[in-house]
């Protein structure tokens, strides 16, 4: 009798468990990204404001201006995301925000808004590692990589090769000892007089460059190891520009610049491909994930696809809008952390935060 | 019936929170540089519990909008934006300089107050205020970031001035050379209590959370544009 009663009253029997939804907030650098992720339905809304125009006149990200702009944009974008997703506070199970690494002032904006909102809504808060967000961004696509895999994380701030056993189980195999690859793209573009952010513009210019005109070095590929160095490539480009650009004869200069852009990109991409190949060989893995802003580079995507085809493996990358900084990847990574119970009341941000310090979600 | 206010200020080295109700004032104040972000919400939690109020029983959230430390001002702004948006409450932005003037009135009955916050880079954030016997506050000169020397030139020398804020400590000789002011030892930083009072007194200044923006006063000093960019 008692058993029968309790069976009838148990909500578990009649109501399917509600799927989890999380709000993700990204403000680590010069993009304000807000997204709402539903465990079953995927991304319900994805809002992005890029500050590129704010920083263009300065030739790079001005941290104070970035922070000021995040203050203006974060709340309106949260409002927009909730409306687009048709969600109210009751529909949200947790709030995830980027806690680092990144610019401290910029991180603080996302962190404080997240904490205030979570207090008002009485929801848990999940701090997310920005690079874990990037690394898991391909999980937002239809075809997702299985663990384990190798991840190449390449952006304006990072160049990392990571062995990924599971979420939170990361071994950094190699990283840049100086400039990040995206930084080298941007700095070289600046030398060529291209507007900020120059990386994508340099890649565009390289399309009209010719093969075999200039030969750039492939830094640190002539010795074992998986670390990168890109500042030498930038210097090589500066020297080549100085030697080849004829200020008096303007006519030919555009072609010379395009040829240098081509050679620079070819060398940078080659270097990344060589290191990826080594990492795959060293670990015996057949799956490669590329993420971060530079993973939008067409040449890099093509060359890595070629590599994986020759190795009979597969390459995975997020769609273009999830390559650069965004809230969707933070919401996704945040939900995985939330499900593993990794919530945190300490309102801290970590401008420097090694990826390997993260805890596994399964162990 | 006077409105219930929750106030937060982190614009200087001090971090403070206050809850103002019909009958009572609850507050927390601590000088804790670099810890503001961790300290604010636990303070809010504690004071709401003392006042036996839930966040949604508050009428408005007041914020020390600056001037002051850029990062500090943004910490209070971000937290208040999150709280106010989440609880659907209006926000009352209050000048940290005006808050210090009110503090001097509340604690020392001063009525003519020159507030100066050390703004680093050899400058101060400056404001001068007149407070009526009822606590109504009026600006005497507009708030500005300025070099201490020559900053007080437009102020009447016949007035009994009180000087408050860290600017009076760092630039005591520069400021005292211009005007005869009694420098307060008690009022050095803004306090959320005063921000709450000033917010309560001016409902017209309450806005939606999205609409508030910090009062930095200092713009385009620490960063330079590329040559040729306007």
Strand order of the largest sheet of chain A: 3-2-1-4-5
Q: Any idea what the shape of chain A is?
A: globular
Task: Give the termini separation of chain B.
Answer: 52 Å
Tell me the structural class of chain A.
Answer: alpha/beta
Overall number of structural domains of chain B: 2
Helix content of chain B: 25-40%
Output the radius of gyration of chain B.
18 Å
For the report, how would you describe the main beta sheet of chain B? 5 strands, mixed
Proportion of residues in extended strands of chain A: 15-25%
Number of DSSP strand runs of chain B: 10
Widest sheet: strand ordering of chain B: 3-2-1-4-5
Describe the 3D structure.
The complex is a heterodimer of chains A (363) and B (230). Chain A is globular and about 65 Å long. Chain A has helices at residues 2-9, 11-14, 52-56, 63-85, 104-121, 130-136, 181-191, 198-206, 231-244, 253-283, 298-310, 327-339, and strands at residues 21-26, 31-38, 42-50, 94-100, 125-129, 149-154, 159-166, 169-175, 287-291, 314-316. Chain A is α/β, with parallel strands linked by helices. Chain A starts with a helix and ends in a 24-residue tail after the last helix. Chain A has 12 helices and 10 strands. A 5-stranded mixed sheet of chain A has the order 3-2-1-4-5, sandwiched between helices. A 5-stranded mixed sheet of chain A has the order 8-7-6-9-10, with helices on both faces. In chain B, the strands form 2 sheets. Chain B has a 5-stranded mixed sheet with strand order 3-2-1-4-5, sandwiched between helices. Chain B is α/β, with parallel strands linked by helices. In chain B, strand 2 (14-20) and strand 3 form a beta hairpin. Chain B is globular. The mean pLDDT of chain B is 95. Chain B contains 6 helices and 10 strands; from the N terminus they run βββαβαβαββββααβα. In chain B, helix 1 (36-50) packs across helix 2 and helix 3 (96-108) packs across helix 6. Chain B folds into 2 domains: 5-95 and 189-211, Nucleotidyltransferase, domain 5; 108-183, 2-Layer Sandwich (Nucleotidyltransferase, domain 5). At the A-B interface, helix 4 and helix 5 of A face helix 1 and helix 2 of B.
């Amino acid at each position: 009798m008692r058993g029968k009663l309790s069976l009838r009253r148990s909500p578990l029997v009649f109501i399917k468990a509600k799927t989890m939804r999380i709000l993700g907030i990204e403000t680590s650098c010069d993009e304000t990204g807000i997204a709402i992720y539903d465990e079953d339905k995927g991304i319900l809304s994805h809002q992005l404001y890029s500050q590129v125009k704010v920083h263009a006149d300065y030739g790079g990200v001005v941290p104070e201006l970035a922070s000021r702009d995040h203050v203006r944009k974060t709340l309106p974008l949260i409002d927009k995301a909730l409306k687009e997703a048709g969600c109210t506070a009751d529909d949200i199970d947790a709030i995830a925000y980027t806690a680092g690494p990144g610019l401290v002032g910029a991180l603080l904006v996302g962190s404080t808004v997240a904490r205030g909102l979570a207090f008002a809504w009485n929801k848990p808060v999940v701090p997310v590692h920005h690079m874990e967000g990037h690394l898991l961004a391909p999980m937002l696509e239809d075809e997702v990589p299985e663990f384990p895999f190798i991840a190449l994380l390449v952006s304006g701030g990072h160049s990392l090769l990571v062995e990924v056993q599971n979420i939170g189980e990361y071994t950094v195999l190699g990283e840049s000892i100086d400039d990040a690859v995206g930084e080298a793209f941007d700095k070289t573009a600046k030398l060529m007089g291209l507007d900020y952010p120059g990386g994508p513009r340099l890649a565009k210019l390289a399309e009209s460059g010719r093969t075999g005109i200039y030969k750039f070095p492939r830094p640190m590929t002539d010795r074992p190891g998986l670390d990168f160095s890109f500042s030498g490539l930038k210097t090589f480009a500066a020297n080549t520009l100085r030697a080849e650009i004829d200020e008096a004869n303007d006519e030919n200069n555009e072609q010379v610049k395009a040829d240098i852009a081509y050679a620079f990109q070819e060398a940078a991409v080659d270097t990344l491909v060589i290191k990826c190949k080594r990492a795959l060989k060293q670990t015996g893995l057949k799956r490669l994930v590329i993420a971060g802003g530079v993973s939008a580079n067409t040449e890099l995507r093509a060359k890595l696809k070629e590599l994986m085809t020759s190795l009979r493996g597969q390459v995975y990358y997020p769609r273009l809008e999830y390559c650069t900084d965004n809230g969707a990847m933070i919401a996704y990574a945040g939900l995985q952390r939330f499900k593993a119970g990794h919530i945190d009341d300490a309102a801290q941000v970590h401008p420097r935060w090694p990826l390997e310090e993260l805890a596994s979600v399964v162990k | 019936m006077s409105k219930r206010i929750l106030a937060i200020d982190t614009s200087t080295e001090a971090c403070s929170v206050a809850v103002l109700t019909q009958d009572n004032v609850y507050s927390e104040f601590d000088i804790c540089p670099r810890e503001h972000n961790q300290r604010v919400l636990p303070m809010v939690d504690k004071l709401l519990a003392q006042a036996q109020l839930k966040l949604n029983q508050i009428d408005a959230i007041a914020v020390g909008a600056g001037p002051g430390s850029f990062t500090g001002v943004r910490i209070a702004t971000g937290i208040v934006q999150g709280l106010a948006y989440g609880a659907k409450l209006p926000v009352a932005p209050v000048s940290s300089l005006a808050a210090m003037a009110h503090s001097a009135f509340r604690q020392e009955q001063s009525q003519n107050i020159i507030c100066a916050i050390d703004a680093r880079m050899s400058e101060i954030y400056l404001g001068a205020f007149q407070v009526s016997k009822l606590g109504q506050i009026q600006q005497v000169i507009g708030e500005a970031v300025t070099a201490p020397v020559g900053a007080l030139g437009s102020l009447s020398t016949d007035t009994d001035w009180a000087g408050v804020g860290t600017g009076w400590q760092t630039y005591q000789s520069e400021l005292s050379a211009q005007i005869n002011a009694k420098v307060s030892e008690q009022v050095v930083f803004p306090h959320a209590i005063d921000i709450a009072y000033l917010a309560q007194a001016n409902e017209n200044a309450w806005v939606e959370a999205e609409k508030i923006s910090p009062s930095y006063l200092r713009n385009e000093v620490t960063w330079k544009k590329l040559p040729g960019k306007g």
